[in-house]
Amino acid sequence: MSDVPKTHPRYLSLTLRDTIVAGVEQGITSIHGLIAHGRGEAFDYLIGEATQPFAIEAIHAAAAMLRLAEHPVISVNGNVAALVPDALVTLGQALNAPLEVNIFHTETGREERIRKHLLKHGASNVLMPTTEAQLSYIDSNRKFVHPEGIFKADVIFVPLEDGDRCEALRKMGKDVVTVDLNPMSRTAKQASITIVDNVVRALPLLCEEIRKLTDSTTQDILKKYSNEAVLQKALQHISRSRNGNQRKREAEHR
Length: 254
Ligand code: PTJ
Prior knowledge:
Largest sheet: 6 strands, parallel
Number of domains: 1
Distance between the termini: 41 Å
Number of strands: 8
Radius of gyration: 18 Å
Order of helices and strands: HHHEHHEHEEEEHEHEHHH
Bound molecules: ligand PTJ
Strand content: 5-15%
Structural class: alpha/beta
Helix content: 55-70%
CATH superfamily: Phosphopantoate/pantothenate synthetase
């Protein structure tokens, strides 16, 4: 870990960088994960590095969809394994759902290292990809899944996804709940529910929401939810804050 002082104005963001770098050093996160993280940072900056109302709306719907699922599964890649291992385990316990390792960049031993990392953080049920079950409509390493996990799932929680698998899962008739800081990404647009927020803030809130939900309200929340409308709100927010920042900069130069 680097020695970022707690008084640094960007302490939280820099600490997260340390966490993702540590993930790469431990062989959990792909080196490409650093680039994905940087892209996320840029969008986080634009949304104000805080959970916004459009994310809260999506979190409510996501909690409802995951609670109503018959066979929910939590997909884990190298970035989320490094950033939020405890919250992933808590979510699995709250839903009584397995975690399943599923990565895009193939590297010898990384899947197994992710599995061990999750077990160390308290997971009891971590499924691994197999060649027995494969997703249709996709050619990458992500097509290899577990027959009792993603293959059988009706709802899959897939944070920080690449668009291809999200599209394939939707074509296979499954619902996808994602967390993606970029409201314009293919995943964000194709998912059933997109939480536009940093996964480190969104996941604890999602777990809390699942615990608070009552059966009588879940159907109602889902009926009222529109992912397209939520993405529009995120884009409007980004555009407003961009204009706000520009006005601030102009005022500073006057
Ligand atoms: O471990 P692997 O091999 O499965 O690889 C995982 C990554 C994330 C590298 C892989 O799925 C990938 O390349 O993803 P993309 O296509 O770069 O997409 C990642 C998306 O997540 C981008 O839209 C980022 O803006 C977003 N993102 C990055 N960090 C965060 C995030 N969203 C929420 N929270 C973050 N911390």
